Automatic annotation (TrEMBL):
Membrane-protein topology: Multi-pass membrane protein
Protein name according to UniProt: MFS family permease
Membrane-spanning ranges: 50-70, 79-98, 104-129, 141-162, 168-191, 203-221, 227-245, 266-292, 298-321, 333-351, 437-460
Protein species of origin: Paenibacillus xylanexedens
Gene3D superfamilies, per database record: MFS general substrate transporter like domains, Multidrug resistance protein D
Organismal lineage: Bacteria, Bacillati, Bacillota, Bacilli, Bacillales
Limits of the Major facilitator superfamily (MFS) profile domain: 12-465
Keywords: Membrane, Transmembrane, Transmembrane helix, Transport
Highest taxon in the source lineage: Bacteria
UniProt subcellular location: Cell membrane
Length: 477
């Protein structure tokens, strides 16, 4: 009986991870294909960029509404709805990929599916697995979701070079069907809470606020849009968001339970740490390719290859970090991981221009080790600090905050980089040295930002046990 129960739990793990893995895999494959889309559809680079941007826009719009949908349908049905949308629109993309309008629609709906699936995937696994193994489950979840971005560009390039574009959609269909059947058969069905009421005013305020903020960030880098337009959209988004919070303050069951940030001492700290980690991660993704190609003059292929040790080490040490977390003896490995991430990023600011490719690869691997030990472990501690019935609310809230904050962080870094290197060039430095100087400062800023989270990490991990919630009270694992 015990063996049967264990097999069923592992079947849940497989069904959920296959759905999430294929979604992330496909999206990362698309990120490499912007030049191909520009040539295939005979469109501008700006128009082609929307094939990439619509996915992120739709995901950011959907995430805040996920808690309302879960309240109506339940966690299982909401996740299966996401898989169904993903599978159906993959079929549509495979059949009608020659139309740019269909391609844009498919990418938008894939983003909707991601907004439903990504926040719920880890929560559904926590429903099945107890606190004693949740660290390893978080590690397995993070391992696959880190391998997908590493494998996706390779898959996309292979398919475009040796196959046809529709194959990138057809490959999703059997994976979506397998995940859908698996989730339907092995995940336990819970009666939806139905605590939330549908308030059209709140829903429209939230959609318009998040939409305006996201669209403003996406249009910021567009050369065909007037400079004032993105800033106007961002300002409008902030005003609508303030109005949304004012409206929701008077409701018994708000659309997004941001009160979770006030009710629990551990959860808001983990959200703050994870948000800074996300901002730094996307900032590094912005800065390092520029450093490798514009300063160190590495080819795009070699620059991409340098991210392989990062992905491998991140995946491996997520599993190791999860195993250490389950032992419950000490959480100090999270602090060591945080410190390693900071040191590896700061090291890029002191590299000489003729640095060996092996040194760069070693720094990427060190950063991967640090991210693997610290990133997912912090998220797992935050979710476990909430009651089971609030986990999906907490996941949606933290993911939405992290996504919006990282978008603004990248926008700010882009603005700083363009202004700073041009100022340095105007001061008499060569273009290469001006860019090198600006990127050095960005690396120092990102490394210090991670370092600032270290006291918060130590505050959470000062006890040698994990923290979960039993009967509404915090208790040691």
């Amino acid at each position: 009986m015990l063996k049967l129960s264990l097999m069923k739990r592992h079947a849940v793990l497989l069904a959920i991870l296959i759905g999430a893995f294929s979604l992330v895999l496909t999206n990362s494959a698309f990120n490499l294909l912007l030049p191909y889309f520009v040539q295939y559809y005979q469109i501008s680079t700006t128009a082609g960029g929307w094939i990439i941007a619509l996915y992120m826009l739709a995901m950011t719009l959907t995430m805040p509404l996920a808690s309302l949908i879960v309240d109506r349908l339940g966690r299982k049905q909401t996740y299966m709805l996401g898989i169904s949308i993903y599978g159906l629109f993959s079929v549509a993309g495979a059949l009608f990929y020659h139309s740019i309008e269909v391609m844009l629609l498919v990418r938008f709906m894939h983003g909707v599916a991601a907004g439903l699936m990504i926040p719920l995937s880890l929560v559904l696994l926590f429903d099945v697995y107890g606190p004693e193994v949740r660290g390893r489950i978080t590690g397995a979840w993070g391992l696959l979701l880190m391998l997908a971005p590493a494998a996706g560009p390779t898959l996309g390039g292979f398919i475009i070079q040796y196959g046809r574009l529709e194959m990138l959609f057809w490959i999703n269909v059997p994976l979506a069907i397998f995940s859908l059947i698996g989730c339907g058969r092995v995940i336990q069905t819970y009666i939806p809470a139905r605590r939330k009421k549908w308030h059209p005013t709140s829903v429209m305020l939230l959609i318009c606020a998040v939409g305006a903020l996201s669209l403003g960030v996406q249009l910021y880098a567009s050369p065909v849009v007037a400079v004032w337009v993105p800033w106007m959209l961002i300002a409008l988004g902030v005003l609508l968001l303030i109005r949304f919070v004012q409206t929701e303050n008077g409701r018994k069951e708000p659309l997004i339970r941001y009160q979770l940030l006030r009710r629990n001492a551990v959860f808001p700290l983990t959200v703050l740490i994870s948000t800074i980690q996300d901002c730094v991660m996307f900032g590094v993704i912005f800065a390092l390719p520029l450093l490798f190609q514009d300063v160190f003059h590495l080819s795009p292929a070699l620059s991409g290859a340098l991210f392989i040790p990062l992905s491998i080490c991140t995946s491996l040490f997520m599993w190791i970090g999860g195993s250490l977390m389950d032992r419950g003896r000490s959480m100090h490995f999270i602090a060591w991981g945080t410190l390693l991430v900071s040191i590896s990023i700061l090291s890029f600011a002191v590299l000489p221009l003729g640095a060996s490719i092996w040194i760069i690869g070693m720094l990427m691997a060190c950063r991967g080790i640090g991210v693997g030990l610290s990133g997912m472990s912090i998220s797992a501690i935050g979710l476990q600090a909430l009651p089971d019935e609030d986990m999906h609310e907490g996941s949606v809230l933290s993911t939405t905050i992290e996504r919006l904050a990282s978008s603004f962080a990248v926008m700010g870094l882009t603005l700083y980089y363009d202004m700073r290197w041009q100022w340095l060039a105007g001061a008499g430095k060569s273009m290469e040295m001006a860019k090198w100087g600006a990127l050095k400062e960005i690396c120092i800023g990102l490394g210090c930002a991670i370092l600032l989270t270290l006291p918060l990490v130590l505050l959470i991990t000062r006890k040698k046990v994990g923290i979960i919630v039993r009967d509404g009270k915090q208790a040691p694992v």
